[in-house]
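> tool_call: predict_assembly(chains=two)
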Amino acid sequence: MPDITRDEVAHLADLARIDLSDAELDHLAPQLAVILDSIASISEVAAGDVPPTSHPLPLTNVFREDVVTPSLTAEQALAGAPEVEEQRFSVPRILGEEQ
Amino acid sequence: MSGSDLTRRTAAELAQALADGETSSVEVTQAHLDRIAEVDGAVHAFLHVDTDGALEQARAADARRAAGSPASALDGVPIAVKDVLATEGLPTTCGSRILEGWLPPYDATVVDRLRRAGLPILGKTNMDEFAMGSSTEHSAYGTTHNPWDLDRIPGGSGGGSAAAVAAFEAPIALGTDTGGSIRQPGAVTGTVGAKPTYGGVSRHGLIALANSLDQVGPVTRTVLDAALLHELVGGHDPLDSTSIDQPVPAVVAAAKEGATGDMSGVRIGVVKELSGEGYQSGVLARFEECVQVLVEAGAEVVEVSCPTFVHALATYYLILPAEASSNLAKFDGMRYGLRVYPEGIDLPSAEETMRATRDKGFGDEVKRRIILGTYALSSGYYDAYYGQAQKVRTLISRDFEAAFAQADVLVSPTAPTTAFKIGEKVDDPLAMYLNDLATIPANLAGVPGISVPSGLADEDGLPAGFQVLAPAMADDRVYKVGAALEALLKDRWGGRLLDRAPELNGAAR
């Protein structure tokens, strides 16, 4: 298992949409390396032809009748929003200025 | 009856006293609210106490009793709820700044079932942020203290629920268990905690940590109380497509049967891989005594081997972060919860706002696990890590199947050690993860488990736990064996373990 570098942690934080400060990167990168090292043993388990388990229950395709049931009102759904405008979630701009 | 008498009673005893008209729900609820006011400054089990709401629900319960139509056997018995479960109109934070002040617009199914059954909700209990941790030290709102020793951790992630019950602030509580978050706090606080079969209790309204591992369950002082609460909240829920559409196993009957102390005909498998190195000697000594007690009660003991269990921790710390990093993507500062605009940027974009919000809103452990999960799922590593972990998960389930062919239940110490000192492991993630060594395999395989107190470790006088595991949907077996051990130990000790916990009366901090 390859070691994880500070740059890689910065890249992963970027993918996960978390701004990490330099101090946080310095702190987290070595800790992640220790954790990854401890779970490296997993690759040594012979499991080539073993089917994967994504879920502990043998359940597939749980359906329900397609009927309308009561749900949240618009007011309830918006009640926790940081910003609301005209009964909608108000969010910061999505596109860059050049787009 | 004085308030302190009422807080010492079990939920089953309180239900009986209410049915007999010996006390009222208002009296019982007020006694617990008084106890919270008295000791929670020191214990900090609660993040929010709903005094008015609980008393209002208690008055309604008393009215139903007076009219001769209680909503359930536990109508009027108060309860505490872990802050990971959505409660309409009551703050629900998951121990995170990112949800500070959030008032859910709906109830989790289990909370809805509590309300329908008439249980007044005392408040919401502390937890590690998004249930990531084994000590509650990762809560953004301060650590919960172990009632046995206020300088020590109460376990986690559900340390708040366990400490509330151990400190007699609530007779019963709800917890959630993803890798041991009900059972390990039970072990280190001298209380009972049960993780039902995966799918046995609805997860609707449980703010997910890892969907394929999470399960809601009871946190109590006795096995019978756990069974009563399990039957009340368990069963199929159309709002959770992973919930099992079958009757709840007869866990109350099993707990009552077990309490007779007769273990004849029960085959108990001691898991070889869940003891030895890494386990504290006093924890092992109590565990071995418990096995002996069960043997004297007629149980047959076999040693079983589950060779893949040694890889359970690694498997878990790939699967859990992978699922958690996906789940926590929804905390983006757009529709609910915290929104933080980045400093020094005019007209920030949604993405820049998201990054700043998640940096400010999440604590260290949550960031560690999101990054770990993102790594495990990233291209180039997916097959080597996540894919391999899913295969090993299958091998762990096969180990369970083989073991259950030789034994009705499997047993082990619940946690490898007793409660450690606050601060000791908070910045050493790996040391923290090792607390869940013995509890994780059950979550990976979806099987039920319970922790009951096994006694106090000689070296530190702190409680340890005895874990019982059973095959999926055989939850009744863990209650039967758990109740038997509880009854047999109570006879030996001449009382309950918690009777030996220090008084916290008026403890100020």
